[in-house]
TrEMBL record:
It catalyses: L-histidine = trans-urocanate + NH4(+). InterPro entries: Aromatic_Lyase, Fumarase/histidase_N, HutH, L-Aspartase-like, Phe/His_NH3-lyase_AS. Keywords: Cytoplasm, Histidine metabolism, Lyase. The lineage of its organism: Bacteria, Bacillati, Actinomycetota, Actinomycetes, Kitasatosporales. It comes from Streptomyces synnematoformans. This is Histidine ammonia-lyase.
Amino acid sequence: MNMHSRPAPVVLGTAGTTADDVLAVARRGAPVELSARALDALAAARRVVDDLAAKPEPVYGVSTGFGALAVRHISPGLRVQLQRNIVRSHAAGMGPRVEREVVRALMFLRLKTLASGHTGVRPEVARAMAGMLNAGITPVVHEYGSLGCSGDLAPLSHCALALMGEGDAEGPDGAVHPAAELLAAHGLAPVTLREKEGLALLNGTDGMLGMLLMACADLAALLTAADVTAALTLEALLGTDRVLAPELHAVRPHPGQAASAANMLKVLDGSELTGHHQTGHDGVPAAPRVQDAYSVRCAPQVAGAGRDTLAHARTVAERELAAAVDNPVVLPDSRIESNGNFHGAPVAYVLDFLAVAAADLGSIAERRTDRLLDKNRSHGLPAFLAADPGVDSGLMIAQYTQAALVGELKRLAVPASADSIPSSAMQEDHVSMGWSAARKLRTAVDHLTKVLAVEMYAATRAVELRAGLTPAPATRAVLRAVRDAGVAGPGDDRFLSPDLAAAEGFVRSGRLVAAVESVTGPLL
C-alpha cells in the first residue's frame, strides 16, 4: 500500500457505506473522515449509555460482566477496569499474522458501525480509530481467535488493544513496533475506555465481512478471466462457438450463464480456428465429433453459476454493510437491548458458497488444460504441447501443479459454517465459524488465480502451435501481451516455474482481461 498517494477520503455518516469504500480504505489507503452527522449520532447514543450507567439497575455491557459472567453487577469504580480487561483478555489470538488489508477493512467496518450511533461509544473513541487508520497504523492480528459469533472477538480485540496503546502494530513502513510507540510517533493518544466501549469495539462481523467484500471483488475479476481462458482453450481445441449463441442461453435464463457465453463469443469473434471439429484443416484429419466435451461446451454454465452465486453473496454483503452489529445495541428510542445480530451465519454461508464455486471453476479449468495436453483428445496438438515429445516433457508437470491446486480447492470447499463448537461455558452454544470460512476463501481465491494462469499458459501455447490458422483478434492481443509480460511461448523444455509465476502475475494484475478488452471493449 502506498500511503503517500491516497485516493479521496471516505466520509462516514453522510450516506451508506459501499463495498468500494471498504476497498479504498483497506487496499488503497484512503483516509477516513467522520461527518458532523456521525459525531452527533455518537454523542446522542453516548448520552443514553451515561444515563443508564448512573442508574442502579444492571445493564449488560454497561454495568455487568460479559458472556457467561453477565450475572455479576459491576460497581462504578470498577467499570474502566472492566472495559480494559475485556480487551486484554479477549486479545488471545494465535498463529500467523493476518494480512494488512484485512485488518484495515476490519477496523474501518467497526468504525462504520461506531459512527452509526447504535453502539454508545464516545466520539473521541471513533476519532481515535480514524486516526489510527489515517496514520497507517495496523494492529497485529492473528489467524486464530474468532468463531464468527459474538463478533470476530480476538481479531477485533487486538485492534482495540492497540487503540489503548498496548500490544504490537505495524507502521506505515511495514515495521512492527509496540503500539504505544507508533501512536506517540504520529501524535495520537491512547484511549481510556469507559462503560460499554470495550464491548462495542469487539462485537461485530467486521473481519468476515471485510474478507467477503474483498473476495467478491477478486472473484468478479477471476470469473471474467475464466471466460477468457475457456475461450482460448475452445479455440486451441478447434471447438465450435455455436454453443455460445444467445438464443441457446435464453432458453435457460440464468443471467450469469448468458454473461459468460457473451464474453466467450466476444473473445472468439473473427477466429479461423473455431468450427473445425467436423471439417478438419490442413494436416489434421476431420475429427468425428459433433459436439465438444463438457469442460469446453459447458464452460458458460459452470462459470455462469459462479456469477449468480457471486451476485447472491454481494446482496448479503450489501445488507451486512447497512447493518450496525453490536450487543447490546442503542435503539432510536433511547433503549439499550440485547440481541443476536452478531451471529455470523448470513455472511458465513455465502463465504462457503463462494468457496464451492471457486473449486468448481478451478476443476473445469484443469479438465480443459488436461485435454490440451493429451494428444489423444487435443485434435492434432503434440503430446503435452512439447517441442519434441519424449525428449521434451512440455507442460506435463504444469498440469500436476494445477491438479494439486484443484485438489486443495476441493478441500477448501468443505463448509466451515456446517460446524459449531460451543464456547463461553455454553452461553455461546452455537457459533457460525464465519471467520474460518473467510480465511479459507481467501486461500481459494489465490489458488484459483494460479489454476487459471496455468490454463492460460497452456492455451496460448496451443494456439500458437496451430500453424496455418489465424486466431481471433482478441486472442492475438492476448498473445502479444503475454509475451511482452515475459511469459515464453512454445519451444524446448526450460525451467518452467518462472514462466508460471509470470503467467500468474499476468492474470492477477488484470492484464489478461485488459488485453482482450483492448479489442472487444468491456467484458461482463
